[in-house]
Specification:
- With 290 residues, the protein is α/β, with parallel strands linked by helices.
- It has helices spanning 11-24, 31-45, 61-75, 99-112, 137-148, 151-164, 212-222, 239-245, 258-268, 284-288; strands spanning 28-30, 79-83, 86-89, 168-172, 183-189, 193-202, 228-233, 253-256.
- Helices cover 41% and strands 15% of the residues.
- Strands 4-5-6-7-8 form a five-stranded mixed β-sheet, with helices on both faces. A three-stranded antiparallel β-sheet has the order 1-3-2.
- The longest helix has 15 residues, at 31-45.
Length: 290
């Protein structure tokens, strides 16, 4: 993406937009909903400007900073995780915030928690990612790994994922012979009912979202071949793509974006492991008053 006309949104504005979007969503929303609406809100505020660009690992910079914003709002006590990948405003909190105050307060708190802060930089204002600050920080590394995979490796990963999710008869069609379809599988319900699924998996770089044309082309490939489709991508789907995927009278297509994909890999421990780390806090006041 060219930097021509690029404008970097101030981090406090990203924090404010994240909160405003959650208010507009009724107080809660998924990462996908938050990201899409914040990006749209920022774009409306800066028309004819480029507000996003890929980071070195391919992740969108604005999406990365929105993850920081969620962490700041959570640390400040305004936001809480209600489920994996879903957030809600803490009940009883105000419907307006002072974003500058939140950024300064949380940054100061985190900085004091570091063993050494002489060369520290402000989270969210650059490419730094201090350890234990951003809850979604691991996704930055994982997204880089996923987007660097070769096409056939990503297809094999999707097969492993479906098998781990209890799909059966999972097969990768092979490059050059898929006619827009990367594989087939069977989904079982209570070991009684089964329906055929065809899937397509594409490594899209952030900034190149999957649109309704890609969904329409995929549906054209799976017509008469399966009961439903599954489109897996490392990027995100546009609103029109999501609408097209569930269009009435057409073969339904389930969508798995990069956020859902990474959460699922973590949940199933497919190449992603979680370690619980003990965090020790020193209470200076306790020692002063002993």
């Amino acid at each position: 993406m060219s930097d021509s006309g690029y404008i970097r949104i101030p981090f406090s504005d990203v924090v404010k937009a994240t909160f405003d979007v959650l208010v507009a969503l009724g107080g809660s929303g998924s990462n996908q909903q938050i990201n899409e609406n914040v990006i749209s809100l920022c774009q409306d505020a800066h028309p004819n400007k480029t507000i996003d660009r890929p980071r070195p690992n391919g992740q969108g910079e604005l999406e990365y900073r929105i993850a920081w914003a969620r962490s700041y709002l959570k640390e400040y006590g305004i936001l809480e995780n209600i489920a994996r990948g879903s957030w809600a405003i803490v009940p009883g909190k105000i419907d307006q915030i002072d974003a500058d105050e939140i950024v300064n307060d949380v940054y100061t708190k985190w900085r004091k928690g570091k063993a050494s802060s002489s060369d520290e930089v402000k989270p969210g204002e650059n490419d730094a990612e201090p350890e234990n600050y951003a809850e979604d920080g691991w996704k930055t590394d994982l997204l880089g790994v996923l987007t660097d995979l070769k096409s056939d490796a990503f297809e094999r990963l999707t097969k492993r994922l479906l098998l781990a999710c209890n799909f059966t008869d999972v097969e990768v069609t092979g490059r050059g012979a898929d006619d827009g379809i990367d594989g087939t599988a069977t989904a079982k319900i209570n070991d009684l009912l089964g329906f055929s699924v065809v899937f397509q998996c594409k490594r899209y770089r952030p900034g190149n979202s999957v649109g309704n044309k890609e969904i329409q082309a995929f549906r054209g490939s799976l017509m008469t071949r399966a009961d439903r489709g599954l489109f897996v991508t490392t990027s995100r789907f546009t609103k029109t793509a999501r609408t097209e995927a569930v269009r009435s009278g057409a073969v339904p297509i389930d969508l798995m974006d990069g956020e859902m994909l990474m959460d699922k890999l973590k949940e199933l421990e497919l190449g992603v492991t979680t370690k619980m780390v003990e965090r020790v806090t020193i209470d200076d006041n306790w020692f002063k008053n002993i």
